[in-house]
Amino acid sequence: MNWILTALIGAFLGSICWLTFYSVLRFPSRPVKIGPFTWSGLLTAWVQKSLTAQAREALLQLHPGAKIRELLQDPSTRQRVINWLSGRVQDYISNTLPQKWPMLSLLIGDKTSEKVQQALSEYLNENWDGQIDKLSREELSDEKLVARILSMELFTNSNIISNLLLRWLSKRSLRIMLLLASISALMAMAGRWLFLMLELN
Asked: For residue 196, what are the domain limits?
């Protein structure tokens, strides 16, 4: 009977430890500011500090700016952009313009549409590399791109990531508690047995 009681006490203490730890992880889910101090759940605080910093380092190692520059400098990218813009110009002249300004559309024939598309294509071919270089220097640095990614709601609102992790953890909470309860019960029984052995000696 004493052994069963020892095991039950150990299991109870293990369960209480897990529930306490889980509560500290989870609550409060939103940071609470008390004077100069901010109190938040351990998981929320960890997400805000450690995970965001690790994400920043991982993103910087990907060199997103260099990859985007390489993609933009690819001649096939330029051609796809020219084809897309030409299609939009053709669609506007053929469909939108007649609806908005019917009289004006009568003055624009197929040759004018072709000249506009040709002029657009020539302009993009002549200025593409220069504009990409300028864009690269001003906007495509790794630091700026990573800062923009980290400014997205996924990172600025730590509750999103915290809730995802907590949802994963809560589905396994019962199994974790049972495992810790079993380990605690075994440890309690082992401690009792060791105590008895010491008494006998």
From this structure: 2-200
Residue 148 — very low, low, confident or very high, per pLDDT cuts 50/70/90? confident
Pinpoint the alpha helices (H) of the chain. Answer: 2-26, 42-46, 52-61, 64-73, 75-91, 97-100, 102-107, 110-139, 142-150, 153-156, 158-171, 173-200
- By residue count, the chain amounts to 201
Output DSSP code: residue 172: T
Tell me how many domains the chain contains: 1
pTM: 0.44
Q: How far is CA 83 from CA 59, 79, 118, 128, in A?
A: 32, 6, 11, 14
pLDDT tens, residue by residue, 73-95: 888 888 888 888 888 887 877 77
